[in-house]
Amino acid sequence: MKEIIVLAEHRRGELRDVTWEMLSKGRQLAESVGANIGVALLGKGVNHLAEALTPKANKIYLIEDEHLEFYNSETYEKVLVQLITERKPFLTMIGHTATGMDFAPSLAAHLKMPLATDCIGIDLQGETFSLTRQLYGGKVNALVSFIKKEPYMVTVRSGAFPVFEKDPLDGEIVLFPSPLTNEGLARRFLQYMEAAVGEVDITQADILVSVGRGIKDPENIPMMKELADAIGGTLSCSRPVVDKKWLPKDRQVGTSGKTVKPKVYIAIGISGAFQHIAGMKGAGTVIAINKDPKAPIFSVAQYGIVADLFKIVPVLKNKVKEFRKR
Amino acid sequence: MNIIVCIKRVPETTDADVFIDKSGKDIDKSGLVFDLNEWDSYAIEEAIQLKEKLGGTVTVISMGGEESNESLRKCLAMGADDAIRLTDPTFNGSDGFTTAKILGEAIRKIPYDLILTGTQAEDDGYGQVGIALAELLRIPHAALINRLEVQDKKVKVHRELEGGLEELFEIDLPALLTIQTGINEPRYVSIMGIRKVAKKEIKTLGASDLNLKAEAVGLSGSDIQLEKIFLPPVGEGAEMLEGKPEEIASKVFDILKDKGGIA
To answer: Is B181's Cβ below 8 Å from some Cβ in A?
Structure first.
């Protein structure tokens, strides 16, 4: 029987959301062509995760090995080359995450398998896949097809596919032998390092005034801080502001920063890359100020202002301050 | 320490109004400003800082037409020693994997200890070329590097994971690392700086120099192809607040009060 295999992504004893998202999408694709859905789980002492996956797949390929205690591209590649060569899935699905981005392209190259990365849409008609990806930082979408014949590999964007509740599958856990030996690895895991704890915790704030690349200059930070203070909110930011060292990392909202759920989120000069939106889409009310009417931030905002932020922010700041004085 | 950096020239679209061109397969690039891919600017800066500390050379490589010289020269002005441009009509339409294949054939001929690329490109966003290139060259690799330290024949790297977490690895050299933004502060290049390297030779290599047959590159050598592009569907969309700054500020103020945004 034809099969789709999803790679279960887990870290520190927990399956990551993208795993469930891929299993949901993978099952839908598999059922549409009468195929099975399988999931590969690599780790050490991860039996409980295998059990948790049984309702979501027909087969759970469990590869347990002490060398798999921590993710490492080298060990993952060795195991997955063996599994994919043996099981011959027509589609392998891996998260387009810090993990998937680190090894899916080399795994695909090793297996000479066509790869489409960072997919946000996957459609299957007969044997023909049609994939949706984003170009130019999400300004346009693209439909992409495979030129060569199956098997294929895709990496899947986190949060792009919803998780459906479906009848449980009562999947079988299959112990798959590990090909790993004590042979030296050219890449060795050392440790995890936690994010530095900063002076403020933006995840606890009810109101966030969040600034992006559009504020143009670090000299404009005090003005934004003043607005945040006047409102009684906390200053946060998008990635480019941290990359440019205008604000510390602990202020960053987004995939690689913090996930926030304030009552009110004011996005100032933030275009709204998907990594940013992933971190703030749980906010109550979103007000966005941006000069580009097509900025993706407007698709998640309830209120939008297309304007020069430097004309709006000072006026708004004064208005709030006046109100405070009364 | 000999370092190779792979770079790409891309259009700046962050603040630009983007339109689809007549082919329906790309955006209209007339009127757009082009620059070095943002991730690559961090990669070249990192390479130059390593060279300044450890000695050796930095070679910068790009696949593209003559216009790519502009980005290669920027890298030379930043401090790279040599620049190579891979160009051939048959290279057009190459996907991420095939681009890696072409880069790989050029890099095979150069001695190196370390290869740096950006984690991804601003335009197509594959995030594929660097990691596939490492596999083709059979060297160890790691993606999303936001800190690195060369120690003798090894490199210690920090990989940026989700939620602010980092993963530390030790990797034997030669290796390939894909660089994440924010790892350093790319140096400013003045017009004078670019002028100084204006006469510097940029070596070009074509398909025959790399022993690449036409069917192995371009669209015929690729695994995936782009069918069409379209503007992303807009959600329900925001209620747009219009008027003079004073009027807009009043509306925002009322919304803030209403939604508990002024405590």
So the answer is: yes
Of B143, B158, B241, Cβ closest to residue A101: B143
| Half-sphere exposure for B127 (CA within 13 Å, toward CB) | 31
Contact A101, B96 (CB under 8 A): no
Q: Any chain A CB within 8 A of the CB of B159?
A: yes
- The CATH number of the domain holding residue B71 is 3.40.50.620
Contact A106 B131 (CB under 8 A): yes
**Residue B203: beta bridge partners?**
B84
CB A220 within 8 A of CB A306: no
Which chain B residues are closer than 8 Å to A140 by Cβ?
Answer: 18, 20, 27, 229-232
- How many domains is chain A partitioned into structurally? 2
Measured distance CA(A147)–CA(B17) in Å, rounded: 32
Coarse DSSP helix, strand, coil percentages of chain B, rounded to the nearest 5 percent: 30, 30, 40
Nearest C-alpha in B relative to A244: B182
| Cα angle for residues A280, A286, A288 (degrees, 5° grid) | 105
Give the three-state DSSP class for B87: coil
Do A24 and A163 lie in one domain? The reply is: yes
- In chain B, the residue whose alpha carbon lies closest to the alpha carbon of A259 is B163
Find the CB nearest A137 among B122, B185, B249. Answer: B122
Residue-level pLDDT at A312: 95
Domain coverage including residue A221? 202-325
Other CB atoms within 10 A of residue A229 CB: 15
Neighbours of B46 (CB within 10 A): 23
Show the tokens assigned to A211: 């600034």
Q: How far A286 CA sits from the closest chain B CA (Å)?
A: 9
Structural domain contains residue B231: no
Q: Which of A175, A210, A244 is the last residue of a domain?
A: A175
Q: Are A42 and A68 in contact (CB under 8 A)?
A: yes
Question: In chain B, which among 101-120 make CB contacts under 8 A with chain A?
Answer: 119
The answer to whether residues A294 and B15 touch, using CB atoms and an 8 Å cutoff, is no
A8, A38 contact by CB (below 8 A) = no
pTM of the entire predicted model: 0.95
B172 and A232: CB-CB below 8 Å? no
Dig out the tokens for B106 from the structure.
């050029």
**CA nearest A208 in B: which residue?**
B261
pLDDT of residue B263: 59
ipTM at complex level? 0.95
* Rg from Cα positions in chain A: 23
Nearest CB to A264: which of B123, B224, B259? B259
pLDDT, position B155: 98
- In the predicted model, is pLDDT for residue A293 greater than 90? no
Q: pLDDT tens digits for A151-201? A: 999 999 999 999 998 999 999 999 999 999 988 899 999 999 988 777 889
Nearest CB to A190 within list B96, B170, B172 = B170
Contact B136 A74 (CB under 8 A): no
A182 in a domain, yes or no?
Answer: no
